[in-house]
Amino acid sequence: MSSTTARNPIIETKALTKDFDGHVALDHVNLEVRPGEIFGLIGPNGAGKSTLVKMLTTLLPPSEGNAMVAGCDLRREAHAVRAHIGYVPQLLSADGALTGYENLLLSARLYLIPRRERAVRIGDALAMMRLQNAADRLAQHYSGGMLRRLEIAQSTLHRPNLLIMDEPTVGLDPMAREVVWEHVRDLRQRLGTTILITTHLMEEVEALCDRVGILHRGRLERVGTPAELKAEIGPQATLDDVFVRIVGQDVEAAADYGDVRQARRSGTAHG
Amino acid sequence: MARSIIRRTLDYVTEVHAVADAEIRKLRHDPSELATRAIQPAIWLVLFGEVMAQVRGLATGDQRYLDFLAPGILAQSVLFAAIFYGIAAIWERDLGVLHRYMVSPAPRSTLVLGKAVSSAVRGLSQAVMVYLLALVLGIGLNLRPFDLLAVAGLIALGSGLFSTFSLIIACIVKTRERFMGIGQVLTMPIFFASNAIYPIDIMPRWLQAVSLANPLTYQVDALRALMLTGGSSKFGLGVDCAVLLVICAMLIVMAARMYPRLTT
């Protein structure tokens, strides 16, 4: 395992490709995410965002290419990758049948946080996500925003260098979304965590991201700061304009039944 | 070197405990499942057992039929509880909870073993219910502490074995609908092609061969020796335990390899 330095990208993919029996979901993607930044990944449904995230989190093996994630080789050191990253999936990942405290305890044990540190870390995480008063309630009684905060707490309990969040605000109302954004910024500021976030919301990109990558049909079409991308279109351009220019008329065609079902299911789960 | 091995072993135990403890906590939050699961063995013992005991058509040697039946029903209730563990795994996948386990650095075998241990705890609670019922029905139970411990070990082993088998099926079929169909198709042959409710000797030859390849047969055989006063084992306790241990270990290795497929 190689070590990361401030100058090395925390994610560096090289021709990363995923082929599902002839359907190329991700096509030779070369992406670099720098330490300490909040990087947004946008694209229409079916563009390959979740596939890329699943590969970076070791849930899916690449068909071709490779990546270094948090200083570890994705193919050869999957176990080490998992130890160095945190992941907030698009679907609800907190266990509703456990309390908030128990969900955190489970994560603390799975990440082998020493017993003597567990109570302090869990207490800190609950305080940081403002969940102290709900710690002993079953997670199934939490609101959508509280669940997301609990999941962020679970994913950062082991102090990962990199946090990957797959559409973290899907299904949340604007107020809950704002609170999640605040916590994401806070994480970067307090712990220096690098954050990769996938989203459909241009507003989220504007609010959070230092740089953004646009995926379309499995290809990484553009990477830049929101200001750079908008400047390519014109002085009054918005990120929506950039998105439409790149994705064009293919938005309808890109979303398949599975994408829609998954988006609605996670939306319902966080409702 | 030795310190590193001890450290890794302790880490492994911590991760198995993490998964098992989470499952046990869920059971503590909602123990109603334990009560509802007690109904099925009660029906088998009280209705089926009492009626079949009147027929006297099954050659159970010196044993009363109800005594012969009790270990089989205990094994059956453990089997039925464990075999649907796979559907819980699919449910966890559908909810997204499984992703949290799969992106953790915990080895996959700890996740499978943790589930098996929690299944064992459920199985033991089933055993308590069946023992209480058996006492009420006047079944000649062997209550020697060492034998009770051995029964607990067998129940835990059987629960772990069948819950892991169920997890493998879940990794293959991947959807709840398919699992419901196949779950029914699997549990009935496992139950009826065993010595749970009738002796192997009265089966046709081909069914005897199937029964000998069925791990439930060995669990019931060992339970008959340990659970009942004056009980005996047809194959020998050593053979019964060895067969169950080997099959359970093989299934855990298989499940650990297949479990990550459930998220893809």
Round the mean pLDDT of chain B to the nearest integer and report it.
90
CATH architectural group of chain A: 3-Layer(aba) Sandwich
Strand content of chain B: under 5%
What's the overall average pLDDT of chain A, rounded? 88
Let me know the number of strands of chain A.
11
Structural class of chain A: alpha/beta
Please outline the helices and strands:
The complex is a heterodimer of chains A (271) and B (264).
Chain A: E1 11-20, E2 23-29, E3 32-33, E4 38-42, H1 49-56, E5 64-69, E6 72-73, H2 78-84, E7 85-88, H3 100-110, H4 115-128, H5 144-156, E8 162-166, H6 174-191, E9 194-199, H7 202-208, E10 211-216, E11 219-224, H8 226-233, H9 239-247, H10 251-254, H11 257-270
Parallel strand pairs in A: 4-9, 4-10, 7-8, 8-9
Antiparallel strand pairs in A: 1-2, 1-3, 1-5, 5-6, 10-11
Helix pairs in contact in A: 3-4, 3-5, 4-5, 5-6, 8-9
Chain B: H1 2-29, H2 32-37, H3 39-55, H4 65-83, H5 85-95, H6 97-102, H7 108-136, H8 145-173, H9 176-192, H10 205-212, H11 215-227, H12 237-258
Describe this structure in words.
The complex is a heterodimer of chains A (271) and B (264). Helices cover 42% and strands 22% of the residues of chain A. Chain A is built from eleven helices and eleven strands. In chain A, the strands form two sheets. Chain A has a six-stranded mixed beta sheet, sandwiched between helices. In chain A, strands 1, 2, 3, 5 and 6 form a five-stranded antiparallel beta sheet that branches. The longest helix of chain A has 18 residues. Chain A is globular, with a radius of gyration of 18 Å. Helix content of chain B is 78%, strand content 0%. The chains are: A alpha/beta (271), B mainly alpha (264).
